[in-house]
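seq/struct pair 1
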Amino acid sequence: MKKTTAALGAALLALSAQSAFAQSSVTLYGLVDTSVRYLTNANAGNDSQIAMGEGVETPSRFGLKGSEDLGGGTSAIFKLENQFQLWSGKFDNSNNTLFQRNAYVGLSNNQYGALTLGRQQTPFFDMMGNTFDPLTVGDYWQDSWVYNPVGPFLFTNSSVKYNGTFGGLHVEGMYGFGGVPGSTGQNSMYGFAASYALGPLEAVAGFQQNDVSGKKFNIANVGAVYSFTPTLKVLAGWLHSQDNTGLADVDMQQSGAPTLAHVSPNRIDDSFYVGSTWQVTAPLALTVAGYYDHARNAAQLDGSLGNGINYSATVLAEYSLSKRTEVYGTVDFTRGNGAFLADYPGRNNQTGVAIGLRNIF
């Protein structure tokens, strides 16, 4: 018995020493966020709606991330991240994907950057969601519609991704394998983005191409952030997309919008945005954002192809109750004409008012 106890103790000490040497860590993290929202012209009868739903900026999620120190400034890393509907408890996707947002493993080096493999956010989404969009790519249709054409392509399965920072330069590149026998390009994707910070100014440029059964979706973007003070920033940018897949016309529509008779084989969108974030006081932050899009050769309600213009404006106020919890209120307005009439369930304009609560853990 003593020998068994001694052997067990030695094994535990060995495991403890190995763990201490490797400096492994696993972190459970996430956020929960929901809002109550009033929206005008929410259906074909132009009725108003009051409903509980997603947060204005941040969908609810939880995840696990970890790292293991391999020595020499290199670590093994992984992330598993799920997105869900707080108000219903359901997965926040139509195909019941468990780790919708991220599921990857890789290696990271302090000097050379990180290389990861799995399902991952694209460089475009990383840059816009983290830094260059005033609302960090919002969740309501009325403040995120400009991103709807690229919406299905913000995450990529079976991808390899590199990101690294060298002084003021940050670069990201990704390639997604299509997995189609006899065709390396079909259903594949590639994308890259680079940002550079110089004093109070930070700028970004990027490009992404997705193949869908041999047809292409392309998006290019440039943007900038200027910090007048540590608490006041202005942002602006341009997105240019060309869609040959026919998906953009459908993905641009709100829930309840009329069914399209046809989709465009070559839709082109030029979108512009401006905004500002201001930390008024320690607990209070204000954000204003405006989006404008000119669509060409887009599907219209009568089955033809044509042009259209859509624009929106959003004001968001956030008040921190603690480091992890905040309440917020937001007002938004959006209006469209031409081809964008196909994207509204009722009249061609909507006004939304919402209040919400967010907790980060």
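seq/struct pair 2
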Amino acid sequence: MNWLRRWNARSLASQFFIAGGLVSIAAMFLVGILVTNLIEDAVIHNSGAATALYVDSVVAPLLPDMQTESLLDEGSAQALDETLGQGALGRRLVSFKLWRNDGTILYSNEKELVGQKFPVNGKLQKAFAGSLVARYDVADDPESGAERALGKPLMEIYNPVLQPWSGQAVAVLEFYETAEGLRDSLAHARLQSWGAVAAVTGIFFLVLSALVFRGSRTIEAQRKDLKERVRELSALLAENRRLQRRLQRASQRVAALNETYLRSIGADLHDGPAQHIAYASLRLDSDLLVNASTEPKAREKELAWIRSSLAEAMTEIRNICSGLVLPQIEKSSITEIVLRVVEAHQRKTETFVETIIDEDGPELATAVKICIYRFIQEALNNAYRHGGGVQQTVKAVSHDGHVCVEVSDRGDGFDPTAVRPTSLGLTGLRERVDSLGGFFDIKTGEGGTTVTMTFEPMEAGD
């Protein structure tokens, strides 16, 4: 079965060239043999007919009534001897026989054959039926020993002798001639016939091959294009599956992080504003405020402590809310978003942030804008808390639908492996970027820290 696999691996043009070539060669040989045989038969028959017509015109007047004669009389035999043994006819004819329909030789230039009877072969039968028989070959009949002894092909002709009034064959003239030049004529005819058949077959095969090769190239090009498309679709399918797994994992982690965020917010409210409010509530029930004998100065001091605690609680609540609530950024460009979050960070920390913005991309989806805002906000907060806010830089680039945002500082850096999995900062950034199909990267060392996010944004409205 290896040959079958190798055969199927070939192109259609190659298969046609091999199979069609073999079939064409076989057809050429079959047609060539058929055409050559037909031409040879036609040449031999025409040559024999011409000779028979000439011999018949010379010999027929010398023959007696063959229906009444058993053997030729001496005068007729002598006339035939003189006619067939002289001149151009004598030089061409090798032998001559006159047959009766029962196989008896009535006359022959070989006198020992006269009166002998031989089996009637197919050639004689056909001639007695009225047809001319011509054959070019080495003589092989029992009565043709002398002709066979010459060892070369001769023109053997059987010509029926017909009665003038009835057209019935009453005898058959058999004669052999040297047929000089016939061999060359046959060779020339063979060469021409084989050449014609080979030329026609070759042209036919070449024309078909050109058409098949053209079609094969088209099919091969379509097959390659189809394979390329299948490969691309397979790659896209694999990428979609990978992204789907990433999205599922990110969704699970985001759900867990949201719960962690809620617990963190609850802890911040409990440890901050709730403590101040509880302290104020306890002071409201103190003896200094309840007892009517308390001095106004002492009561005022106690109220001042309560107002201070409530003010601190309100301040912390506002800070927590400002971190949770985003400004209106749905209609904002990347430039406006970056400047807004950078300015807010500079006011809050009283530090300077170098800003580089290069924007010429399309409008981004709201989810991407929120991601950009939170990414810069959290990265700058980390740079301030852990890197001291040294040489903070924000670089945002948007070209042809690709967005890259980079936040860096020149602090001391940190060990990424030491970050706890439950940490909300970096983990939250990574999960937020992953959930949108983007890529998150962080590089840190003695020269500082660089946090980068890149992705192809969704179309606006997705």
